[in-house]
Write a structure and sequence with these properties.
This protein has a domain at 8-44 and 55-122 and 149-243: Vanadium-containing Chloroperoxidase, domain 1 (Up-down Bundle). Helices cover 57% and strands 2% of the residues. The chain is built from 12 helices and 2 strands. The chain has helices at residues 4-16, 18-35, 63-85, 89-117, 124-128, 152-157, 165-185, 194-216, 222-243, 265-279, 292-298, 323-327, and strands at 300-302, 308-310. A two-stranded antiparallel ribbon has the order 1-2. Helix 7 (165-185) runs antiparallel to helix 8 (194-216). The two termini are 13 Å apart. Keywords: Membrane, Oxidoreductase, Peroxidase, Transmembrane, Transmembrane helix. GO terms for molecular function: peroxidase activity; phosphatidate phosphatase activity.
Length: 328
């Protein structure tokens, strides 16, 4: 028989993290809602050479590959470490929740800033395709009304240069993975193991390469990828420390304890008594149900350590479960 408190504690544990999951889902839904909005159309100059780069039809790191690198790869690594090495489903839960929180906060903030700033991309004029003969007004700048785009989405996306979403997302996922690995390896334990530093830096290098590729595709200015990277690292650091201690902590490899309180000694004893009662529960057609059951229960005592005994003798012939065993 499985004690009922197990199901109760499982529900308590789930509910204690329900708000976190709701927030993460809400942030992701908010991102998709904002992504369809029109960004601010900032004015520009037709003679600005930083906007004259060609529009690349094929990106070095398309969105699908970005999702694999910044989410699927960290998810697989965290799952393998938590289940195969740590052997802790709770570590898996906290690790994945922190990863999702990091990415959700990153994409949400990045999208809000993109829509608000409306900075033209380096390939904007190629997207805009200005009316032939267009020039900037005297003592002024041009606006998007002079554009003759073949695709309105491409033109609208041309005003989403700052900050770089690829850069922020790559650091939001891979920097989080770096922090997770650093905690498991005790990188900052002041013992100077060089190989740990390489493992810690490897995901960061991957994120940096993705950010650099955005300048090679002429999708972003260097300021865009720099600020995007900062956003990703900040939220990765914040999200990691919501569920794990400082990287300098002697138990940095362990997640924070569950948010529900542990069972007290009195709860353990009560649970053991319930289990013992169930253990002596006989079928209704048993001839010994009326008499011997009451006698047996009266002779059962549970000492302060949670061990079940019959009278002064240990129940060697009929081993009864202890409260500690039940809790496990």
């Amino acid at each position: 028989m499985i004690p009922s408190f197990r199901d109760h504690r499982t529900r308590q544990l789930f509910l204690s993290y329900a708000k976190d999951w709701v927030l993460i889902i809400a942030l992701i839904l908010a991102f998709f809602s904002l992504d369809i909005l029109e960004p601010f159309h900032r004015q520009f100059s037709l003679t600005d050479k930083s906007l004259m780069y060609p529009y690349a039809e094929h990106e070095k790191v398309p969105t699908g590959l970005l999702v694999v690198v910044c989410f699927i790869v960290p998810l697989v690594v965290i799952s393998c470490i938590a289940l195969l090495i740590q052997k802790s489903p709770f570590d898996l839960h906290n690790g994945v929740m922190g990863l999702l929180l990091s990415l959700a906060l990153t994409i949400m903030v990045t999208e809000v800033v993109k829509l608000s700033v409306g900075r033209p991309r380096p390939d904007f004029l190629d997207r805009c395709k200005p009316i032939p003969g267009s020039v900037d007004p005297p003592l002024g700048l041009s606006n998007s009304t002079i554009c003759m785009p073949t695709d309105k989405y491409i033109l609208s996306d041309g005003f989403k240069s700052f900050p770089s979403g690829h850069s922020s997302m790559s650091f939001g996922g891979l920097a989080y993975l770096s922090f997770y690995l650093a905690g498991k390896l005790h990188v900052f334990d002041r013992r100077g193991h060089t190989y740990k530093g390489f493992i810690f830096a490897l995901p960061m290098v991957g994120a940096a390469l993705i950010a650099i590729s955005r300048t090679e595709d002429y999708r972003h200015h260097w300021q865009d990828v720099t600020f995007g990277g900062i956003i990703g690292v900040v939220f990765a650091y914040f999200s990691y420390h919501q569920y794990y201690p400082s990287l300098r902590h002697q138990e940095s490899h362990k997640p924070f304890s569950p948010r529900i309180a542990r069972l007290s000694d009195s709860d353990r004893v009560s649970t053991a008594e319930q289990a013992l009662t169930a253990d002596f529960d006989l079928p209704s057609n048993s001839p010994s149900r009326d008499g011997s059951l009451a006698t047996d229960l009266e002779s059962v005592r549970i000492d302060h350590s949670g061990n079940a005994r019959r009278g002064d003798q240990s129940t060697a012939g009929h081993q009864l479960p202890s409260a500690t065993d039940l809790n496990e």
